[in-house]
Amino acid sequence: SSGINAEWPLRPGSWMSNPEEGRKYRLYGVTNHTGTLDGGHYVAAARNPLTGDWFNYDDHVIRPMRADQIKKKDAYLLFYTSCPAHQDQELLRKLHRVS
User: Fold this and answer.
1) Which residues pair with 56 in a beta bridge?
2) Strand partners for 35
3) What is the model's pTM?
4) Which of 72, 74, 89 is nearest to 26 (CA)?
5) CA dihedral sign of residues 9, 59, 55, 81
6) How many angstroms separate the CA atoms of 24 and 85, rounded?
7) Could you give the CA distance from residue 47 to residue 26 in angstroms, rounded to a whole number?
8) Would you say the C-alpha torsion 48, 44, 27, 69 has a positive or negative sign?
9) Which of 4, 12, 47, 52 sits at 20 to 30 Å (Cα–Cα) from 68?
10) What is the per-residue pLDDT across 48-74, written as a single tens digit (0 to 9) for each?
């Protein structure tokens, strides 16, 4: 599949400075790169924290997008935020309504 799940999981581990038991991490942004090491193009996708809507940022053009349109194979950087478990369930409900 060319898309990723908006709730792409991040599991706490020993590589973290202070992993908290039960803490969830939610994907909120992805930077994609296409091209070579010598040059290319960067495009970003980010989720609005209030609505859960995803947007594509390509130079000066900003467009709404679905989470399944994010290109997994071109992912260069992933941005996560931590949140309490009860907020995860609430956001998932919102995302399912928006999808």
Assistant:
1) 45, 63
2) 40
3) 0.64
4) 89
5) positive
6) 6
7) 10
8) positive
9) 12
10) 988 889 999 999 999 999 988 887 777
